C-alpha cells in the first residue's frame, strides 16, 4: 500500500492487542474478520497473518484485488469481496483464485454460472438486503433468485450474508429485529434448497449486542481493531474490554517560549494567556490529523495530557507544555494511545466526538497516511 514515507510521524499497530480482541469476539472458526480498506488502516497482510495464526478460516475483504493480495501471500482462507466483482477481470481473478464471488443481483448469477460447470463447481456468497438498502437481493427477489440458481447447478451457495444498519443503536431495536426476521425468512427459503449454506449477519455491534443473530458466522471489523461501536450508548459495557490496536506518535522538533499576549500559528486563533512553554511537533493535517481539531485536539507527552494550541499546520502543530518539565526535541508525543502514564491515552473516539464523526473514519485515514510500525505488546 502506498503510504507517504516523508514524515516523522508513525502509526503503531499492536498485533498482540489485535489477537486478544479477536479472541474476545468468539471462536475463531466462527468468525469472518473484515479486513477491507487495508484492514481499516492497519495493513492488510500483517493483520491477515496475525488473524490466520489465531485461527481465522475466513476473511471478508472489499475488493477482489485484496483477495488476490492475500492469495499471492499464500493465504488459503475462504475469501469474500464485500463490494463484489467490478470488472470482467475481477470475475476471472475471483474464479482463478478460488475467491467466493459476491452474488448481489440477477446478473451476477449469470456471470458466475458462465465460469463454472459440473466438473468445476464454484462456491459463491449470496448477498441479501435485509434493510441496509445497499447491495443484495430483497425478500421479494428470493423466488427469482432460487429459480436462477436452479438453472445454474454448478454454483454452490456456501454463504448468505446481510448487513445491519443500526445494530449499534439501542433506540433502533425494532428495526434491527425486523432485519433479523427478514434475514431469517430469506435464508430459510435458501436453505430449504441448500441446507449446508452458512449464514452471516452480525457485524461488530451485532457480535457484541445481538447474540441471537450470530448464526454460523459473525463478521466483525471495527471491534477486531479495538473499536467499541456501542461506546456512548447504554450498551457500552458489552464492548468494554476491547483494546485499541492503533497508536499514533510524532516527535518534538523544538521547544520554545511564548510570552503572554503573543499568538501562535496561522490565523492567530490562539493567544497566550500567560507566559508559556511550547513544543513544536512533527505532524499535521498532511498526516491525517484533522485541521478542524485545531485548539481542540488532546495529546499526550511524558504520559500527561497537554493541549494542542493554534492552527494545525500541514506537517507541524504546537502543544502547550507549560505543565511539563524537561521536554526535549526527539521526545515522542502520542496523538493516540502510547505508553502507560498518569493520564489516560487519547483514543480515536476522543477525536471523533468533536468532529461529529465515527472513529472508523479516523483509523482508516491515520493508518493509510502514516508509515506503520508493527509491535507486540
Ligand atoms: C464493513 C462491513 C462489516 C464490518 O462492520 P463493522 O461495523 O466494522 O464490524 C461487515 N459486513 C459488511 C458487509 C461490511 O461492509
Secondary-structure map with pairings?
Blueprint: E1 10-14, H1 15-24, H2 36-41, H3 44-53, E2 58-61, H4 64-72, E3 78-81, H5 88-96, E4 102-103, H6 106-114, E5 122-127, H7 142-150, E6 155-161, H8 173-193, E7 198-200, H9 204-209, E8 246-258, E9 263-264, E10 270-271, E11 276-281, E12 298-301, E13 304-309, E14 317-320, E15 332-336, H10 348-355, H11 359-369, E16 372-375
Parallel strand pairs: 1-16, 2-3, 4-5, 5-6, 6-7
Antiparallel strand pairs: 1-8, 8-11, 8-15, 9-10, 11-14, 12-13, 12-15, 13-14
Please give a structural write-up:
The chain is α/β, with parallel strands linked by helices. It is 29% helix and 20% strand. It is built from eleven helices and 16 strands. α10 packs across α11 (359-369). The structure holds pyridoxal-5'-phosphate.
Beta-strand percentage?
Answer: 15-25%
Instruction: Let me know the number of strands.
Output: 16
Bound molecules: pyridoxal-5'-phosphate
Structural class: alpha/beta
What sort of overall outline do the alpha carbons produce when their principal axes are compared? elongated
- Record the strand order, biggest sheet: 8-11-14-13-12-15
In angstroms, what is the radius of gyration?
A: 24 Å
Overall pLDDT, averaged?
A: 97
- Number of DSSP helical runs: 11
Reported for the largest beta sheet, the result is: 6 strands, antiparallel, barrel
Uncertain runs with pLDDT below 50, 5 residues or more? none
Amino acid at each position: 500500500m502506498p503510504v507517504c514515507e516523508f514524515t516523522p510521524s508513525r502509526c503503531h499497530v499492536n498485533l498482540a492487542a489485535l489477537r486478544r480482541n479477536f479472541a474476545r469476539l468468539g471462536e475463531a472458526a466462527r468468525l469472518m474478520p473484515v479486513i477491507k480498506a487495508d484492514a481499516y488502516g492497519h495493513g492488510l497482510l500483517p493483520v491477515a497473518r496475525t488473524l490466520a495464526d489465531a485461527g481465522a478460516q475466513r476473511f471478508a475483504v472489499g475488493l477482489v484485488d485484496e483477495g488476490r493480495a492475500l492469495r499471492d501471500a499464500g493465504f488459503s482462507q475462504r475469501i469474500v469481496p464485500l463490494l463484489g466483482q467490478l470488472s470482467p477481470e475481477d470475475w476471472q481473478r475471483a474464479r482463478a483464485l478460488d475467491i467466493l464471488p459476491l452474488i448481489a443481483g440477477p446478473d451476477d448469477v449469470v456471470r458466475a454460472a458462465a465460469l463454472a460447470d459440473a466438473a468445476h463447481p464454484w462456491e459463491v456468497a449470496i448477498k441479501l438486503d435485509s434493510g441496509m438498502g445497499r447491495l443484495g437481493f430483497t425478500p421479494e427477489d428470493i423466488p427469482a433468485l432460487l429459480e436462477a440458481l436452479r438453472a445454474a447447478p454448478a454454483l454452490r451457495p456456501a454463504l448468505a450474508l446481510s448487513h445491519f444498519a443500526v445494530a449499534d443503536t439501542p433506540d433502533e431495536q425494532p428495526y434491527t429485529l425486523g432485519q433479523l426476521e427478514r434475514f431469517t425468512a430469506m435464508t430459510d427459503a435458501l436453505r430449504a434448497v441448500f441446507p449446508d449454506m452458512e449464514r452471516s449477519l452480525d457485524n461488530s455491534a451485532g457480535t457484541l449486542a445481538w447474540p441471537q443473530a450470530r448464526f454460523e458466522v459473525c463478521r466483525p471489523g471495527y471491534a477486531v481493531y479495538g473499536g467499541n461501536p456501542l461506546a456512548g450508548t447504554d450498551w457500552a459495557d458489552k464492548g468494554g474490554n476491547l483494546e485499541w490496536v492503533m497508536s499514533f506518535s510524532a516527535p518534538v522538533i523544538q521547544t520554545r517560549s511564548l510570552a503572554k499576549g503573543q499568538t501562535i500559528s496561522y490565523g492567530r486563533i490562539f493567544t497566550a494567556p500567560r507566559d508559556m512553554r511550547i513544543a513544536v511537533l512533527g505532524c499535521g493535517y498532511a498526516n491525517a490529523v484533522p485541521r478542524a481539531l485545531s485548539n481542540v485536539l488532546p495529546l499526550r507527552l511524558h504520559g500527561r495530557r497537554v493541549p494542542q494550541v493554534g492552527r494545525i499546520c500541514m506537517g507541524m502543530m504546537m502543544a502547550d507544555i507549560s505543565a511539563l518539565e524537561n521536554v526535549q526535541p526527539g521526545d515522542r508525543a502520542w496523538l493516540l494511545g502510547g505508553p502507560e502514564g498518569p493520564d489516560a491515552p487519547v483514543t480515536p473516539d476522543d477525536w471523533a466526538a468533536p468532529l461529529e464523526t465515527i472513529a472508523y473514519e479516523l483509523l482508516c485515514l491515520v493508518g493509510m497516511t502514516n508509515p506503520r510500525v508493527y509491535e507486540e505488546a
